[in-house]
Write a structure and sequence with these properties.
The chain starts with a strand and ends with a strand. It folds into 2 domains: about 5-175, 3-Layer(aba) Sandwich (Aminopeptidase), CATH 3.40.630; about 215-385, no CATH class. A 6-stranded mixed sheet has the order 2-1-3-8-4-7, with helices on both faces. It is elongated, with a radius of gyration of 29 Å. It contains 6 helices and 20 strands. By secondary structure, it is an alpha/beta fold. The protein has helices at about 20-30, 50-60, 100, 120-130, 150-175, 325-330; strands spanning about 5-10, 40-45, 65-70, 80, 85, 90-95, 110, 140-145, 215-220, 225, 250-260, 260-265, 275-280, 285-295, 345, 350-360, 360-365, 365-370, 370-375, 375-385.
């Protein structure tokens, strides 16, 4: 093996993880595959910018002919080699013929989705750097499954096969060039991609912290097509489906958030669904419910989903990305829409309807308009005896 090969792995990123399978594999290779041309850059932090900087710095120092980046894929049963990396609308593909690289091995698969996580971010950064500087370096990214006693030996053998075949890429290329002296070599101009500008800076914790205000959060399932109970804090006694009720009485200040989507099953299905919130007083005395701030919007036509720039001035609450965004614009400004009551008085043992909002599917001619709409309802509510 005349050329240098750089191999990288990631560190863990969750508290319960004892190790990263990509680093476990490189540790085994470093012990039992003692080739002087192999260089290891292990336990990269799970951060795109930091990991990319370290790998690119190592490329500049080592100038490897091949780079094999590795990351853990807990849900994949085999070694998977990524064919490309994307960032927005930009795509970079590996220069390696993966069909030849994986030929004859049932334990290696080719993937066309690098996962949209730090692994893909690193892969994209490296391929972009190689392209911009016209480096004579082959790069691949391999996702490593969780290693077990059953699959360990096979994965190690398949990975060693990949290393060997990667080491032969340059030799094959160089041996072919003298045989083709009359053919022009055309190098395509790479498609320019986004530039990465790294600016080290201090990260400081925010002075605030989570409060102890309970939040009634109704969002699962998000898509609703039939009637039923979405979320309930009522006591289960006497209820038809006891498991649907959490038996969690709300007292004092609490928040309420509901976000659901209704989708017409067909152009003939024009039913109107309603999102209702019922308040029940199980106590033996009257209670008052003060609605401090409240708002509700439909995605069509009041608050359509739209993509916004990363930073937008919104001094007057007129910028929003969807119904939830517009609702929070109002609530954070202390507003309560006119259709919301300022207070509800509920006698002992009685119930009252706080809201009953329609999710409308309209029909114009033969076209169903607004088949998917999402109401957002947020209330900052206080219960007082």
């Amino acid at each position: 093996m005349a050329d240098k090969i750089l191999l990288t792995s990631f560190d863990t990123w969750l508290p319960h993880q004892k190790s990263n399978s990509s680093d476990d594999l490189l540790n085994e290779i470093s012990i039992n595959y003692t080739d002087p041309q192999l260089t290891f850059l292990r336990r990269l932090p799970v951060d795109v910018q930091i990991a990319s900087c370290r790998v690119i710095a190592k490329i500049n120092k080592l100038q490897p002919s091949c780079l094999i980046c590795c990351g853990m894929a807990q849900r994949r049963p085999k070694l998977t080699i990524e064919s490309n990396a994307t960032w927005g609308n930009h795509v970079f593909k590996t220069s390696v013929d993966l069909s030849q690289l994986t030929a004859g091995s049932d334990g290696i698969e080719i993937s066309h989705d690098a996962g949209k996580f730090v692994c893909e971010g690193l892969y994209y950064s490296v391929l972009n750097y190689i392209s911009e500087l016209h480096l004579n370096t082959h790069c691949i990214f391999i996702h490593i499954p969780i290693l077990t006693e059953r699959n360990f030996a096979g994965i190690v053998a398949d990975f060693q096969l990949i290393i060997y075949r990667m080491s032969c890429l340059k030799k094959i290329t160089y041996s072919m060039l003298p045989l083709l002296p009359i053919l022009p070599i055309v190098q395509a101009t790479p498609t320019p991609g986004p530039q990465f500008v790294l600016q080290p800076q201090e990260v400081r914790p925010l002075p605030g912290q989570l409060d102890r205000v309970p939040v009634f959060n109704s969002n699962s399932p998000e898509l609703v097509q039939t009637e039923g109970i979405l979320l309930s804090t009522f006591p289960p006694t006497g209820k038809g489906v006891r498991a649907a009720h959490l038996n969690f009485p709300l007292q004092g200040r609490f928040d309420l958030f509901a976000h659901h989507v209704a989708k017409a099953a067909s152009s003939e299905d024009l039913r109107t669904l309603y999102l209702g919130v019922i308040l029940h007083n199980p106590s033996t005395q009257q209670v008052s419910v003060d609605v401090l701030q409240a708002a509700s919007y439909l995605s069509q036509p009041e608050a359509p989903f739209t993509e916004l720039p990363p930073l937008v001035d919104n001094l007057f609450g007129e910028v929003f990305a969807g119904p939830g965004s517009r609702v929070m614009n109002d609530v954070l400004r202390g507003q309560r829409q006119a259709n919301w009551p300022a207070q509800l008085v509920i006698p002992q043992g009685q119930s009252q309807l706080l809201l009953n909002l329609p999710i409308v599917v309209e029909r114009h001619g033969e076209v169903v308009v607004n088949p998917v709409v999402a109401p957002g309802a947020v209330g900052c509510i206080r219960v007082a005896n």
